[in-house]
Amino acid sequence: MKFPDDYGGHDLDGRVNQRAVFVLDKENQIVHAEYAVKQAK
Fold first, then answer.
1. Higher confidence at residue 14 or residue 33?
2. Measured by CB atoms within 10 angstroms of the end CB, which terminus of the chain is less buried, N or C?
3. Residue partners of 16: CB distance under 8 A and separation at least 6
């Protein structure tokens, strides 16, 4: 899981479900990142 590990989308402790949106430019550089985190009950 290289990409999730590098960009913070991989949660190892299991208590958080995390989703992310990344917008890339023509050179595949991240120009926008948005994270949505929902705590598990």
1. 33
2. C
3. 37, 38, 39, 40
